[in-house]
């Protein structure tokens, strides 16, 4: 004779325990999964970048809010670095720029080459190593910024950066110095290059 299932207090306790375990697992790992998916979407987009694109076009493809930095490499050629801060990894897109096109905005200059990098997130205690990074965090008296005043915008000395702003500025500027060959040291920064090309042709 088949015995019918009876939903008693013991069964209810088991169901409640299993539900609690499932909820705890989802609560713990769901944010990590979402962060992983965001990184994978970024890297898939970064794989599509190619020479000839502008900073603006690259930003549209990647689809994240980036911070653009313009400077020159060790040979004096104009370059740009766009940074993206994602949970679990920081990304930099490094471009050598063609300034001969007549475009008046830096973001409209096409790049002659483009590379995307995944950087390990630095420790909270990270300090600037190069002079350029130190100047970013602790601006000299010659580094100015604009500030509102009763008489309108005025130029004042830039304030030192603190906390997360200081860590990001120091780390990115140090990487900028390395990747543009303005320093021969890798500064101990851990990073990987994201291959460009058709994502379907990439090997894991």
The total count of strands amounts to 7
Reading side by side through the largest sheet, how are the strands ordered?
1-2-3-4-7
Radius of gyration over all CA atoms, rounded? 24 Å
* Percent in helix: 25-40%
**Termini distance?**
56 Å
Task: Tell me the strand percentage band.
Answer: 15-25%
Structural class: alpha+beta
How many helices? Answer: 4
Q: What are the low-pLDDT stretches, counting only 5+ consecutive residues below 50?
A: 199-204
Mean pLDDT: 85
Shape: globular
Q: Profile the largest sheet.
A: 5 strands, antiparallel
* Helix and strand sequence: HHEEEEHEEHE
Protein model, in words:
The protein has 204 residues and is α+β, with helices and mostly antiparallel strands. The protein is built from 4 helices and 7 strands, in the order H-H-E-E-E-E-H-E-E-H-E. The protein has helices at residues 9-46, 55-62, 131-137, 163-179, and strands at residues 67-72, 78-86, 89-97, 111-119, 144-149, 152-157, 191-194. A 5-stranded antiparallel beta sheet has the order 1-2-3-4-7. Mean pLDDT is 85; it is low at 199-204.
What are the SSEs and their pairings?
Elements: H1 9-46, H2 55-62, E1 67-72, E2 78-86, E3 89-97, E4 111-119, H3 131-137, E5 144-149, E6 152-157, H4 163-179, E7 191-194
Antiparallel strand pairs: 1-2, 2-3, 3-4, 4-7, 5-6
List keywords for this structure.
4 helices; 24% strand; 204 residues; alpha+beta; two-stranded antiparallel sheet; 7 strands
């Amino acid at each position: 004779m088949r015995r019918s299932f009876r939903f008693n207090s013991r069964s209810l306790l088991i169901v409640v325990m299993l539900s609690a375990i499932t909820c705890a697992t989802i609560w713990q790992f769901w944010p990590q999964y979402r962060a992983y998916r965001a990184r994978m979407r970024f890297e898939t987009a970064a794989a599509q970048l190619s020479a000839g694109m502008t900073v603006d076009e690259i930003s549209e493809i990647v689809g994240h809010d980036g911070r653009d930095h313009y400077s020159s490499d060790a040979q004096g050629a104009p370059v740009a670095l766009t940074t993206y801060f994602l949970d679990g990894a920081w990304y930099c897109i490094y471009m050598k720029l063609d300034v001969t096109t007549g475009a008046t905005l830096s973001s409209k200059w096409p790049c002659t080459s483009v590379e995307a990098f995944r950087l390990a997130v630095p420790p909270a205690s990270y300090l600037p190593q190069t002079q350029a990074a130190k100047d970013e965090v602790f601006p000299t008296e010659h580094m100015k910024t604009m500030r509102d005043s009763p008489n309108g915008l005025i130029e004042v000395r830039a304030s030192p950066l603190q906390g997360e702003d200081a860590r990001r500025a120091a780390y990115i500027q140090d990487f900028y110095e390395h990747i543009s060959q303005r320093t021969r040291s890798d500064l101990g920064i851990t990073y990987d290059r994201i291959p460009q090309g058709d994502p379907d042709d990439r090997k894991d």
